[in-house]
Design goal:
Blueprint: H1 16-45, H2 54-74, H3 80-84, E1 87-91, H4 99-108, H5 114-123, H6 128-145, H7 155-160, E2 162-166
Antiparallel strand pairs: 1-2
Helix pairs in contact: 1-2, 2-4, 5-6
């Protein structure tokens, strides 16, 4: 039985450790999505150097990621990594997520990265190690916010009216 989000009887969010493990696994799986997409883009645009046409490539990969996440979230509430870690995305009322809500969540989920990316850009940092450290610190700080948030949900879920919940597959299905 699913209660409305914010209800004292609402289903508890998966542990932060489990959600971060799913986040990391999602990154590994996305490598298999983004490399062929980048190859397709570079082939179609005749891109010969990685730095030429970089903005177009980034926009294309942003679109590919959006299609990936919106497709899976709107059709069952789970990406491949979420199925593995038994986590499901639902609307705040426990129903499935619409394509519009999934798109809004995808756009809002960039809050994970934007503060760190903006800081690195404004500081003029060019060191890959410093960029990685800033991103890691930003992601961990953002994730830690969930420990203080209502229902232990991420900020982008609170903004979009969605939530993550534990999921168990139906036996024999």
């Amino acid at each position: 039985m699913t209660r409305a989000f914010g209800s004292p009887l609402a289903i508890a969010a998966p542990t932060l450790r489990r959600r971060l493990a799913c986040f990391c696994y999602e990154g590994v799986l996305l490598f298999g999505v983004l490399v062929p997409a980048a190859y397709l883009y570079s082939s179609l645009t005749q891109q010969r150097h990685a730095l030429s046409g970089q903005a177009g490539l980034q926009a294309f990969l942003f679109l590919v990621l959006g299609i990936y996440f919106v497709w899976f979230w709107a059709r069952g509430g789970q990406t491949l990594a979420m199925k593995t870690w038994r986590i499901r995305l639902v609307a705040a009322d426990g129903r499935g997520v619409s394509q519009v809500r999934a798109l809004l969540r995808y756009l809002c989920s960039w809050i994970w990265f934007l503060p760190a990316l903006a800081l690195v850009h404004l500081a003029g940092v060019r060191s890959a190690l410093v960029m990685f450290a800033a991103m890691a610190f930003g992601v961990l700080g953002y994730a830690a916010f969930a420990l203080l948030a209502p229902g232990r949900q991420y900020l982008h879920d609170l903004l979009c009216g969605t939530r993550l919940q534990p999921w168990q597959p139906v036996p024999g299905a």
